[in-house]
Structure formats: C-alpha cells, structure tokens
Design goal:
Length: 197
C-alpha cells in the first residue's frame, strides 16, 4: 500500500462516514491476494466506497479515464495512489499490461464494467475488459453493488458478493459479452440483498 493511498484513505474515510452512513454487507467475501473487484457506477465517489469496504488491509488499484491525468496536481495524486489511466475509446494495450502486472503481483484492481456513470440499473450494459483480464490471469472476480442514489446523512448499504472464477474464454467477442452480461446480472442482483437487510 503506497503512502499516498494511506494518506488519502485516512483523510477521506472519516469525512465520507460523517456525510453518509455506510453499512457494508459481505466484506468477508474479499479474498486474499489478487482479484478484480467489479461494481456498478453512478458517482465519482464510487471508488472510495469500495476502498472503504475493503479496509486498510489491502489497497486497490483503480482504472481511470486518461483525461484525468491531464490535470497537473490530480495527475500526481492519482499516480502516487496507484491509479492508472485507460483510453476508453480504444484498445489500450498499456493499461491492460499494467492491470495484468498488478494481478500477477497478487494485488487487487477495481473496474466498473459499465465503463461510465449510469443512473439506473435497467440501463446497465457491460464492457468486456474485466472478463478478458479474469480469463487471462485466472483470478477471481468480486461483484459489488453500490446504491445509485446516495443521500447525505442517510444510511447506505454497499454489498460485496462472493468471488467467482470464469472459465478460460476461447472464442468470439460474443462469448466475452455473454460473460460480461452475466457479471452485470450478478452485480444488479446484489441490490436485492441491499434492500432486504
């Protein structure tokens, strides 16, 4: 865990917990070692909720759009915190290599299969990047659900699902898409558990 990650965690954790009242369900589902944490995405704050669910025992490496790295001070902070850029409009080989390097080192990465912020579950569609990485590295995927609507000073439940592995994908892009759709179904299904508890 980098020093910058520790500092950001220490500063932001009490602030977010004061503004919102998060309750984490299934934190014990995070496995030891490498995994790909995949969550739905509706807010710029979503990466923090997943990091807080994981706790201080491990750090997460986040993929972020490359445009953010053009902002001078933010660029420095992101890199120090272990965030790496991805060109969302193209096949970014460098970003893929970076993600694989972290996973092979036994570290955890965080991805949003929707690729961008989505306002409601019924509009969710999945990109195939997480499936491709899971297939190549044979590490588990951990689905996670974050409420789309977040209200200040209100209880909010973040649900961490059970890790699972996918078979080595050999075939067409349709095969990747099928696994990606199944991943989003697992993530959205966690919203029912969030409502029940």
């Amino acid at each position: 865990m980098s020093t910058a990650y520790k500092i950001l965690y220490t500063i932001l954790y009490p602030i977010y917990n004061a503004l919102y009242w998060p309750h984490y369900i299934g934190k014990e589902n995070f496995p030891e070692g490498a995994c790909i944490v995949c969550a739905n995405h509706s807010s710029m704050c979503d990466p923090f909720w997943v990091a807080f669910a994981l706790g201080r025992k491990d750090s997460l490496h986040f993929m972020a759009k490359k445009e953010l790295f053009k902002i001078p001070i933010l660029n420095w902070i992101l890199k120090k915190a272990g965030v790496f850029g991805i060109d969302r409009g193209n096949a970014d080989v460098e970003a893929i290599k970076t993600a694989i390097k972290y996973l092979k080192n036994g570290e955890k990465i965080m991805m949003f299969p929707e690729g961008t912020r989505i306002s409601s579950d019924d509009k969710a569609a999945a990109k195939t990047g997480a499936i491709m990485l899971a297939s190549r590295t044979e590490v588990p995927i951990v689905p996670c659900y974050i409420p789309r609507k977040k209200r200040l000073f209100s209880r909010m439940k973040i649900v961490v699902g059970k890790p699972y592995k996918i078979a080595r994908v050999r075939g067409t892009s349709e095969a990747y898409s099928q696994y990606a759709d199944e991943l989003m179904e697992k993530i959205i299904a966690l919203s029912q558990e969030e409502e029940a508890k």
